[in-house]
Automatic annotation (TrEMBL):
Belongs to the short-chain dehydrogenases/reductases (SDR) family. Pfam families: adh_short_C2. The keyword Oxidoreductase applies. It comes from Variovorax ginsengisoli. GO terms for molecular function: gluconate 5-dehydrogenase activity. Keywords: Oxidoreductase. This is Gluconate 5-dehydrogenase.
Length: 255
């Protein structure tokens, strides 16, 4: 069997991985042999996700912190250092959505969405990359973008600005860190069935629009993004750098 995608001996931190896409990324990487570090703010959900992964025989540990809190992120990485845990793969996945017409959008809501979806990747990415560079063994960073990294939609302005920013932040990281053997890429998920979209899935008009506008005529499932994350975490992608891979069932292709 090919060892191209084997992640044995690697440790991955996936932010926002107690549920949804982040959990699927963690499971995919764990199935490929990685040790995984599960993060979210909700301590109980983190513990639950860790238990679920361990029950399947995977090596998982929890690390709850808020990705927007620079001091909390520094403390979390210091805790990993103290435990001798070295992060080889970082997936900046934590994200939130806030829907409102721009003329009704409060600055605080704009800021919260930008901080969680964009600034967090800088805060967490910096801590991880510092250590990857110091160790001299390279590493992988995957930032989670969106269809809105490419196409704007109404009522999600800060999310769109953040996800457009993620695409270029990834390229900036790739430009700076390639010399240290670190590859940085973005995954752009399409419309995926997770908690973030519960209201949209339950809205018959939106649900019908998603199905009508996608060549697959359906929503994506979190597990359908696992393979792309494994690829971008593995040596199979060692010369793939600064790219964005959309996993959207072809939605952008027919836009
Ligand atoms: P979910 O809402 O299902 O899960 C989000 C996760 O992020 C939760 O575990 C949540 O836990 C965590 N999180 C949120 N804020 C923070 C924070 N400040 N610090 C740490 N963790 C946090 O979302 P999805 O799985 O759907 O989304 C995951 C990523 O994929 C996001 O970046 C999203 O923008 C992106 N994406 C999703 C799409 C979709 O259709 N689902 C489409 C395109 C992109 P807690 O609240 O406990 O902190």
């Amino acid at each position: 069997m090919s060892t191209l995608f084997d992640l044995t001996g690697r440790t991955a931190l996936i932010t926002g991985s107690a549920r949804g896409l982040g959990y699927a990324f963690a499971l995919g990487l764990a199935e490929a042999g990685a040790k995984v570090v599960i993060n979210a703010r909700n301590v109980e959900q983190v513990a639950q996700a860790v238990d679920q992964l361990r029950a399947q025989g995977h090596d998982a540990r929890g690390l709850p912190f808020d990705v927007t809190d620079e001091a909390a992120v520094a403390a979390a990485f210091a805790a990993l250092d103290a435990q001798g845990v070295e992060i080889d793969i970082l997936i900046n996945n934590a994200g939130i959505q806030h829907r409102a017409p721009m003329v009704e959008l409060a600055l605080a809501d704009w800021q919260r969405v930008i901080d969680t979806n964009l600034t967090s990747a800088f805060i967490v990415g910096k801590e991880a990359a510092k250590r990857m560079i110091a160790r001299g063994r390279g590493g992988k960073v995957i930032n989670i973008g969106s269809l809105t990294s490419e196409a704007a939609r109404a009522t999600v302005a800060p999310y769109t600005a953040a996800k457009g920013g993620i695409k270029m932040l990834s390229r900036a990281m790739a430009a700076e860190w390639a010399q240290f053997g670190i590859q940085v890429n973005t995954i752009g998920p399409g419309y995926i069935q997770t908690d973030m979209n519960t209201a949209l899935i339950n809205n018959p008009t939106f649900d019908a629009w998603v199905k009508a506008s996608n060549p697959t005529q359906r929503w994506g499932k979190p597990e359908e993004l696992m393979g792309t994350a494994v690829f971008l975490s593995s040596r199979a992608s060692d010369y793939v750098n600064g790219q964005i891979i959309y996993v959207d069932g072809g939605w952008l292709s027919v836009l």
